[in-house]
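User: Here's a chain of 353 residues. Predict its fold as tokens.
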Amino acid sequence: MSLSLPDALPGDPRFFHREGPLTVGALAECAEAEIVGQEGAGEIVLRGVAPLQAATPQEISFLDNRRYLPLLAETRAGAVILGPAFKDKLPEGVVGLVSKSPYLAWARIAARFHPVSPARPGIHPMALVDETAVIGEGVEIGAFVTIGAHAKIGAHTVLAPHAAIGEGVILGTHNRIGTHVSVSHAILGDRVTLYPGARIGQDGFGFAVGPAGFETVPQLGRVVLGHDVEIGANSTIDRGSMRDTLIGAGTRIDNLVQIGHNAQLGRCCIVVSQAGISGSTELGDFVTIAAQAGLIGHIKIGEKARIGAQCGVMSDVEAGADVIGSPAMPFREFFRNVAFLRRLAKKDGKAEG
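Assistant: Prediction complete.
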């Protein structure tokens, strides 16, 4: 059987909510961008976003990389978001929205055309909501959702099918809880997003060794997620053993990340896919942990430090430091060591020859 697909343009209406049309002036205002081009360009009406090579005169596109300048020269887009360095490259008849942060401008404009779908208030007849739970105004509760005793669900929150909210859990307003997410022993701020399969508040990995084997240590803390936190699909955050596991406001955690009990993450941290942060580790504000990095427990990572991919961090990292390798070391030291080993290998090869 052959499958006929429509043109691969962004915002397939089967999956994405769409708004508009919108004027160039309105888009420039939301993006804080300067309009350049023909007179009266602010009144031009656009209907969506598209890549440079596929955009029509009714759509807006985006350029932030010099290598795509040939596509800009040939684009049929009605308008293009771009940086100041590229505004003199605009083709005739194409309006420019010039921004010092073009990617941020693109994010804001794309979000105007395709905002997150609003909650559809109501409780599905196949959901199970405890009679003592408190449900806020405008909450959407999908099929097979379970909400435990004394839980509180903030206004305009969306609970997708099969989400499980444990006893006493508190969700702030405008949360979005994905399908098959489980939340227990947790307090969430406002505008928190948990993507499908995330697990929040399960037991931390704690045990004592007794004469007959391992004995589980009760995990008596909670998980506290600040405002605007996002947790990726199938990521896990353990509740604390005695103190809370804390995730600071604005932090973004990618898919398949593990956060151990008692960990403390500051504001606006980034933790990329398959990274693991062991228990009682503390991250300052604006720390970046790249993919597959591993951090042992009971260490401190200073504010704005950056941990490279596949890095093994076994001791404290100073604020603002960039480290890579296993064991972790400063970038320059790491690449100096790599260069030394390469020179050594070449010498050994010549000696054998």
